[in-house]
Structures are given as structure tokens and as C-alpha cells.
Amino acid sequence: MLTNIAISQLYVLDQDKALDFYVGTLGLEVHTDVDLGFMRWLTVNVPGSKDREILLEQTGGNPMHSEATTEALRDLVTKGASGGTLFFHTDDAQKTFDELKAKGVEVTQELTKQEYGLDFGIRDPFGNHVRISQPLV
Fold this sequence. Notes:
Helices cover 24% and strands 39% of the residues. The protein is of the alpha/beta class.
């Protein structure tokens, strides 16, 4: 029986820029950063949440992908069409929104009241979608 989600994966075009965004801007922390030879295994997590990681996989690092597949993946990521979306919760959506906007993060949807709470959308530097919400208590 499955008991938890351990690792989710997003394609990024540059792992160092991904670290800067996900750690430096969003405030996540590095969980694992290992050179496997054929690829860099780089995962981050929400501080205090060691059981759920996000693999920031660089396009072109997967030995199972041809160069044509790698180019197609890069194109999809840049267009925001790779299927990668992260959903985060926050205790204060307005404060988080204001802080990220002040840092120059690209906002794709302004802070909006929904049936389930407050939320907004942003994009990472590569095109991946990120949603941040403050659920109703």
C-alpha cells in the first residue's frame, strides 16, 4: 500500500538558476545535491518537510532522452506546457504575494479569493507554473 509522495519532479533549464529561485526567492531548502556522473540529483523541500522533495531535473541530464527529446522538453518548459505545476500552502497569502512581487517574481494570476481560500499564480524563471494558496481553516 502506498503511504506518501516522496519526490515530485520538475524540468528546469539551469539547476543553479533553479536553486536561486526555489531556495533564494521562495525560501525552500536544499535536501540533496549529488553529482551522479550522468546527471546532478538536486532536490529541494519546504523547510521542516523532509519527507517530500522536489527534484529539479535539468533537461538534457537524462540518459534515456535523445537530443531531439531534450530540445522538445526545453521548448515545452519555456512555454509553460511541460505539465509541471507546484502547489504550495502559506499562512499569509497577502504577505507572501507582496514579498514575491517585490522580488520581481512573474505573477500569472493576481491574489484572488476562491471558495477554498486565497491564492495566486507565479512562474519560475523557466516557465513552470507555481500556485500558492492560503486555504480556509
